[in-house]
Each structure stands twice: as C-alpha cells, then as structure tokens.
C-alpha cells in the first residue's frame, strides 16, 4: 500500500468513524422489530438489554443446522450454571408461514427451557435480516414440506446491544461458552 492510499483511508475514517467498529450495533434492529412469543404478542428484544444475547436465525423443520446449534446453546447454558441468568438465548424463526409461537415454544423447550423462541410476519423478519445483513429464503413454499435457506451464524450480542462475536456453525460449543464468559466476567 502506498502512502497516498493510506492517507485516503485515514481521512475517510476521520470523516466517517463508524467504519472503525468491527461489529454492528443492533440496538435499532432490536427496538424496531416486534415479535410474538408464547409469553407476549408484541415483544421487542431491547427487553433483554443488560444481558448477553445469543441470537440465532432458523426454523423448526430444519433438518441439521438448527438442532445442532440449539444443542450447542443448551450445552453452553448448562456450563454457565448460575451465570446463565445473565444470558438470553433467542431462536428467531424465519419460517413465518409455519412456525407459530406455540410450536416454537415446544421446539426450543426440547433443547432448553431458557431459550426463547420467537416469530413474526414477513415484513419484520425481512427488516431484522436486513439489519443483521443476512438472508433467508422459503424454497417451494407452496409445498407442504418445504425447506428454508438461512444463515447458520450465531450472534453473540453484548449487554450494550452491539454484536461482539459471530460464531460460525460447526465450531464446538466451547467457543460459545468462551465468548459469553468473556462478556459476563
């Protein structure tokens, strides 16, 4: 890199310092979008500000990624013991056609009763996915047993509602536990 390019980068960062932040502030996303859970018709995730949030996008008919990720989250919550109260795990269903709050609650409770299963309408799911810069797609949703393409990342969000770490699917659950412990200790 030559000196001219370096100067341009420094000037751009001085003009617009938001590029210095490596991870997104999702406060607006979590306050803009309303969800439904078994507990409430209209829930905003800013309700969990002050806790570490483990947020994952998926759907209950997922054959592989969702169950393994929820199992990893469950293992992390068990390993945290008493500190698990400082964490809110949230499973956001992107399958707005099939995943009702009641069905989501049954599904997540199979893994751990501390995981919150939430859903919303297409408009809100699209808005949240835009904020998180992720995508999903209902494939052949006219059929009864359709699949859904979705992100497989787990978002570790700090108490300040800024994403602190994005954990890729397939990493051991100890990575989730390590990320959470760094934030609560």
Written account of the structure:
The chain is an alpha/beta fold and 185 residues long. Helix content is 37%, strand content 19%. It is built from 6 helices and 7 strands, in the order ααβαβαβαββββα. It has helices at residues 3-15, 27-32, 65-80, 101-111, 122-131, 173-184; strands at 52-58, 87-93, 115-118, 136-139, 147-150, 154-157, 163-167. Helix 3 (65-80) crosses helix 6 (173-184).
Task: Briefly summarize what is shown.
This protein is α/β, with parallel strands linked by helices and 185 residues long. It contains six helices and seven strands, in the order H-H-E-H-E-H-E-H-E-E-E-E-H.
Overall tally of structural domains: 1
Q: Which fold name is given in CATH as the topology?
A: Glutaredoxin
Briefly note the structural class of the backbone.
alpha/beta
CATH architecture: 3-Layer(aba) Sandwich
Major sheet description: 5 strands, mixed
Query: What's the helical proportion of residues?
Result: 25-40%
CATH superfamily: Glutaredoxin
CATH class: Alpha Beta
Q: State Rg.
A: 18 Å
Element-by-element helix/strand order: HHEHEHEHEEEEH
Task: Let me know the number of strands.
Answer: 7
Low-confidence stretches: none
Mean pLDDT: 85
Number of helices in the DSSP assignment: 6
Strand order, largest beta sheet: 3-2-1-6-7
Proportion of residues in extended strands = 15-25%
Cα(first) to Cα(last) distance is 39 Å
Please tell me what the overall shape is.
globular
Keywords, please?
5-stranded mixed beta sheet, Glutaredoxin, alpha/beta, two-stranded antiparallel sheet, 7 strands, 37% helix, globular, 185 residues
